[in-house]
Specification:
globular, five-stranded antiparallel β-sheet, Immunoglobulin-like, six-stranded mixed β-sheet, Methylamine Dehydrogenase, Chain H
């Protein structure tokens, strides 16, 4: 049933017409409308509720002695602007809903020194059909801050799937750019089942799906769990526990599947070892290789951008799929002469030669600005910051030790809540990049370890601390001034750490070659099969939402909840 949301009354409705950015193409401001007169037919978790702190979602208001039927609604932070003119924007970047409903997205904007005597306006770009946006008012936030209630109306009958859009912010007429938001429309029965399962108690913390193949990658999407395995791709239906296995007979390029992602359009992508990549569009698999435009069939990793495109790295170059065709980039042209052998790019289609080292990219990272970063095993990292793909060759820049990076190739990349990028080295510690300068950090305890530990993964916890997992050096935490190293003698399962994750309460966890560890703020707890892990070595973890963690490895996948 369509829900009419109760919102703070604001000024008389104002309709903003088309205006232009200070720079770039014209855009349309989202119309402001007084929705205070509308009353909710039934309460929803994201109804706006006035509070002394500037208003919040109904799900986040706790009345003493009354059980809260909803999980808290969390916001994400994005940094816009640069230098002294930097904004922090808090909002919901992902909203799950049913067709025919109305959802609220509270947007808060803060700035060092305050935003007094300032006016906020919202605009939108590329809004998918079936979604309607209304600026529901300004009764949000404390003095010196700006806020708005973005009301998103989902059309009845809108197809199940993910719908990405961009929300732009103007303050006093200045355009600060856009923030991404994805609306996922789910079947009606999914939400009712999730709500009932949230309120039901269970004697078991986990459920396990066993496989004969080793699970190497996981994607949680709504009521489905996808696994890349050594014997194909498996899709589990989390409602009834049924599964479907896909192999080369179903269109996969190879049964040896290493990595798996979901793009912004909801498609599933996997790397197929020496047979290119394959995509599942909801109905069938399609495989792409050199004959379609990939630079090589020997694929390494892949990443999706906000525009619905997918980047793939392979030996000798990288390729980009824009939804219609493949474009490839390498420092080796199709006609180049290669000493000691055949030119590996001779059969590549749509190839552009670039002055960048892209021959063996292990990590592709798309940051909040839309820049794409490509790791290099030997020297540093390459950034592509162009919006116009025709100018691609002019917008590559490679950063090395001379620019301030730590020595050794880049092995891990992440971005913190302030928009600062962090790079892990396979030789000497960590480096951060604030958009202008690189700052390299040397971890003192690692200097005495031979061979030097390699940073395998980096993340930021809920308190803002930076964590790094290293092979040979355990786990390190950076609290802004100093590094703290945790090793096996401190409770880790092993010093050979591989992947980091956050548990249901925002505490860090780590997958090592000898098991999984969880940190409670002071000590490490080692998880075992009886805690909900699958049999055998654990290789991957994914957050399935609703406080659920899925672990995958040699014995299949398991669901864990504290």
């Amino acid at each position: 049933m369509k829900k009419l949301l109760s919102i703070i009354a604001i000024a008389t409705a104002i309709l903003f017409l088309v205006t232009a950015c200070e720079e770039g193409e014209p855009h349309t401001l989202i119309p402001v409308q007084d929705l205070g007169i509308l009353q909710a037919e039934q309460e929803a978790p994201d109804d706006f509720v006035p509070t002394p702190g500037g208003g919040t979602y109904r799900a986040n208001v706790h009345q003493g002695g009354v059980e809260n039927p909803w999980l808290p609604i969390e916001s994400s932070d994005v940094i816009l602007g640069s230098g002294a003119d930097t904004l922090k924007v808090s909002y919901r970047d992902f909203i799950e809903t049913e067709a025919g409903e109305i959802r609220n997205n509270i947007i808060r904007v803060t700035k060092e020194g305050g935003l007094f005597d300032s006016e906020l306006a919202l605009y939108s770009t590329d809004v998918p059909d079936g979604l309607e946006l209304v600026d529901g008012g300004r009764g949000v936030g404390l003095p010196g801050t700006l806020g708005a209630i973005l009301v998103i109306e989902i059309a009845p009958g809108l197809n199940i799937g993910k719908y990405p859009l961009e929300i732009g912010l103007e303050i006093n007429g200045k355009d600060y750019g856009t923030i991404p938001c994805t609306i996922e429309v789910i079947p009606n029965e999914v939400r009712s089942q999730e709500a009932s399962s949230t309120n039901e108690s269970s004697s078991s913390n986990e459920s396990v799906f066993t496989t004969e193949e080793t699970v190497l990658g996981l994607v949680a999407s709504g009521n489905e769990l996808w696994a890349a395995t050594s014997g194909g791709v498996i899709r589990w239906d989390l409602q009834d526990g049924s599964q479907r296995k896909y192999t080369v007979q179903d269109g996969l390029g190879s049964n040896a599947v290493r990595e798996i992602i979901q793009d912004s359009q909801g498609n599933i992508w996997v790397t197929c070892y020496v047979s290119g990549v394959s995509r599942f569009d909801g109905n069938q698999w399609e495989t792409f290789n050199v004959s379609n435009g990939l630079c090589s069939n020997e694929t390494i990793t892949l990443a999706a951008d906000k525009q619905g495109g997918v980047w793939v790295s392979a030996y000798w170059g990288v390729s980009y799929f824009d939804g219609q065709e493949w474009l490839s980039y390498s420092n080796i042209g199709t006609g180049a002469r290669v000493v000691g052998g055949e030119n590996p790019m001779k059969d590549c289609q749509n190839l552009t030669s670039v002055d960048a080292e892209l021959s063996a990219v292990d990590v592709i990272f798309v940051d909040s600005r839309g820049d794409v970063w490509f790791s290099d095993r030997g020297e540093g990292v390459t950034r592509f910051d162009g919006k116009d793909w025709n100018m691609f060759t002019k917008d590559w820049h490679m950063f090395t030790v001379e620019d301030g990076l730590a020595k050794g190739g880049v092995s891990a990349i992440t971005e913190d809540k302030n928009g600062i990028l962090w790079f892990g080295s396979n030789l000497e510690g960590m480096t951060c990049f604030d958009g202008t300068d690189f700052t390299a950090f040397t971890i003192g305890e690692y200097e005495s370890i031979v061979p030097r530990p390699t940073i395998m993964d980096i993340m930021q916890d809920s308190l803002g601390n930076i964590w790094a997992a290293s092979h040979g050096g355990g786990v390190v935490r950076f609290e802004g001034n100093s590094w703290q190293v945790f090793r096996s003698e401190d409770g880790l399962p092993s010093d050979n750490a591989q992947y980091l994750f956050l548990d249901q309460d925002g505490y860090p966890g780590v997958i090592t070659v000898e098991g999984v560890g969880l940190f409670d703020g002071s000590t490490w707890q080692v998880l075992a099969v009886e805690d909900g892990l699958p049999q055998g070595k654990v290789r991957v973890v994914v957050n399935g939402g609703k406080g659920n963690l899925w672990f995958g490895g040699e014995g299949g996948v398991s669901y864990y909840r504290e």
